[in-house]
Design brief:
- The complex is a heterodimer of chains A (about 300) and B (about 130).
- By secondary structure, chain A is an alpha/beta fold.
- Chain A folds into two domains: about 220 residues, P-loop containing nucleotide triphosphate hydrolases (Rossmann fold, 3-Layer(aba) Sandwich); about 55 residues, Alpha-Beta Plaits, CATH 3.30.70.
- Chain A is built from ten helices and 14 strands.
- In chain A, the strands form three sheets. Chain A has a six-stranded mixed β-sheet with strand order 6-7-8-3-9-10, with helices on both faces. Chain A has a four-stranded antiparallel β-sheet with strand order 2-1-4-5.
- In chain A, a hairpin with a 2-residue loop joins strand 9 and strand 10.
- Chain A is elongated, with a radius of gyration of 22 Å.
- Chain B has about 130 residues and is mainly alpha-helical.
- Chain B folds into two domains: about 60 residues, Arc Repressor Mutant, subunit A, CATH 1.10.10.10; about 45 residues.
- Chain B has five helices and three strands; from the N terminus they run H-E-H-H-E-E-H-H.
- Chain B has a three-stranded antiparallel β-sheet with strand order 1-3-2.
- The chains are: A alpha/beta (about 300), B mainly alpha (about 130).
Chain lengths: ~300, ~130
Amino acid sequence: MTDLATDLAVELRGVSKKYRYFTLDNIHLKLPRGQIMGLIGANGAGKSTTIRILMGLVHQDSGEARVLGHSMPAEQVAAKWDIGFASEDMRLYDSMTLGWHMSFIQSIYSTWDSAYAHLLLKRFGLRADQKIKGLSHGQRVKAALLLVLARKPKLLVLDEPTTGLDPVARHEILRELTNVMADDSRSILFSSHNTQDVEQISDQITFIDRGRIIDSMDKEAYLDRWRRLRLEVPLGIELPALPGIIGVEQQGRLAVATANAFVPDLAQAYESTGAHVQRVENMTLEEIFIANVEHSREEVEA
Amino acid sequence: MHGGFTFSQSDKRPIYLQIMEQIKQRIAVGDWAEGQPIPSIRQLAVDLHVSVITVKRAYYELEREGIIVTQHGKGSHVASTPGLGTRLNEQELEQHLEQATRIAAQLGMRPKELEDRLREAGDRLAEKDLI
């Protein structure tokens, strides 16, 4: 593909939406085709609103949303053939069986893959003759996911697909999501507050807090920017403020500095002040999430 | 499938480093032979249920270390360097020796004492028939 615009599965540019008590403010994000993006944020951060805007379910006040080349919400009818959307409040008919739902979706979407649907039934431990009302929460989530996965859409948009699931069900779902990536023309955007899930399967990560995007970038590059430096600080030595360090906690002679723009020179800069760098540690996405949210809230409030 | 790769959340290292290490182990023990084709980045990501970008990072670093070779459009293979497996084993030995030397220095141990301790460790393993 030569056209850059068509290489993006999702693109939001300057998207804003104002509610009485909440504002989604100037959202920019890009998801290249063939990749998975994890949208991370606390409850109420704006993840679901962002997802609803790119699905055309909520209309933004300003800014541009393009999904698989379609402008949203104007072209949502055309776009939806290629998008599979699942969220917790997705309604299935309680008195109908899962098999009935499968035939129903199959009758609408020509891309339905029956063999794959039956494979998913087995992998998810579900039965086609089960009525929806008899399903547990985890089974319901898996049933809803089966119904979108078997359509083989070009883009999967999943709002909290692993929330409230037991560890086995979570792994089953993460496995199926990564299996989708065998086809490099397909893409996934999912939201989660489970940072482990996002760290494991995402190519791109987007942090959202209080309606604003804090960071949105390539996961490996992102993880690589963050480090924790454990320092031994002799009495009488004062640690300098260094660029790239967002916080230092010191107790007695031991200090921990958190870097969000780590370069090896930072460790040398501390050494040259007389402090001793004991260890430089990588951080998990969970640790980064917490440090980042606290730091960005301090900046906003400052 | 490429079974046997396992990632641990209690392992503090990022996943790409864990993938690198496990590929090196496969080469060191001879399961992945010199010159042998290895899975594509996307295939290994699907098999391991991790993101493509993470496997890409691992392959990139392994290529920089001269352990694998990626040819555009042709996929990746283990470098055809004779004795690559042995070299990886030696690298691992070097790392362990450096680590031991560092700890010995912290304990204020002289090199001669460390040598003796190494010999003793060898004797203990020999008794247990482990080497």
